[in-house]
Amino acid sequence: MTLDRRCGAPSFVLRRYRSVQSCAHSPRTRTAVRPCRPITKRIYRKRPKRSRKRKKSVTYYVFLAFYYIGAVIYIYFVVLSPTETERSAVSNNLELLSFLNEYDEKFGNHFDYELSRWFASQIKITSNAEKSQELLGLLDDHDAEMESIAGITSEQLDDFREKQSYAFLSTAVLNNATEDEVGKLVEIYMRTMTFIRARKLQNFTASFLVQPWKTRLSDFEDILISADRRVLDAINSLDMLDNLKSLAKEFWKSYSSAHTPGIKESCLVYRSNSETLDYDEILDRIRVAIMMQVTSCIPPEYEGWDSVEKTKYEEEDFGIHKEP
């Protein structure tokens, strides 16, 4: 059957068909000829449809720009800006930190007063073990009062005070606060760290009375070295002026030395050509003072000791999670 009989193709198509047939049977070609399809059917390439969407006008883009700008302004000034409650909490937390520092300082005077009065008495009615238990009881009472003031446990309080005081200081430095404002917050931070250190030394001294010859030097060193390291690392990490850093370090050295419980500041010995305390020598002086009843390095009695008036503070909400 010929192509024209199968498909009814015209003569000009037959010529094309014969050329394809000759090419298909050529030895170079290995593919078979496709079956004939109707020639009359012509395939047209579809033109792409025109988009019916209109071009967005300039007004639309202007409106979109203002919309996003308004959203950013709202988030910055409304969502991210501190509320009045948050500002009040910040103010109350600063007040709380200052009050706790004052309360700790007065208790430190009372602790040294009880210790020095016991050393000064000619007849020791109370034994070392009994005095140790008495001082530990004072510390427990002080912790309970601090918990009632702050509304959190004593285990959480030291961590809260350290982090909160440092947060206030670092925020002021980042916000380019004045030198006076930064100086006040440096003082609050240093005083806070001093009394956290003093609390641990008070517990060490009270326990030291029982068996001073068995106390390990490493326990005494850990308290002093860890406090110095944390404070100096915190000060060095802040982007403050060099003169402020120097003043902060000097303040820490003098203030922490003056508030070391159980020993006079004049008895704190430094290593030769160094600003590092000679912990071994200091502990030996405290040990001799306890065992030989030598009062030369024991802090003097503080007269006029009285408890701090704290009624209004117990009634205030300082922004800390108090128990309901």
What does this structure look like?
The chain has 324 residues and is mostly helical. The chain is 64% helix and 0% strand. It has eleven helices and no strands. Helix 7 runs antiparallel to helix 8, helix 7 packs parallel to helix 9 and helix 8 runs antiparallel to helix 9. The N terminus and C terminus are likely disordered.
Unreliable stretches, pLDDT < 50, 5 or more residues?
1-6, 29-33, 81-90, 303-324
DSSP, total strands: 0
Q: How would you sum up the major sheet? A: none
Overall SS class? mainly alpha
Query: What fraction, in percent, of the residue positions are helical?
Result: 55-70%
Which word captures the global form?
elongated
User: From the alpha-carbon coordinates, what is the Rg to the nearest angstrom?
Assistant: 42 Å
| Individual helix count | 11
Give the termini separation: 103 Å
Give the H and E element order: HHHHHHHHHHH
The averaged pLDDT comes out at 73
Portion in beta strands: under 5%
Keywords: Membrane, Transmembrane, Transmembrane helix
Transmembrane segments: 58-79
Give the gist of this structure.
This protein is an all-alpha fold and 324 residues long. It contains eleven helices and no strands.
Key terms:
324 residues; mainly alpha; 11 helices; 64% helix; disordered N terminus
Give the helices and strands, then pairings.
Elements: H1 3-7, H2 11-24, H3 58-79, H4 84-120, H5 128-150, H6 154-174, H7 179-208, H8 217-237, H9 242-258, H10 279-291, H11 311-315
Keywords: Membrane, Transmembrane, Transmembrane helix
Transmembrane segments: 58-79
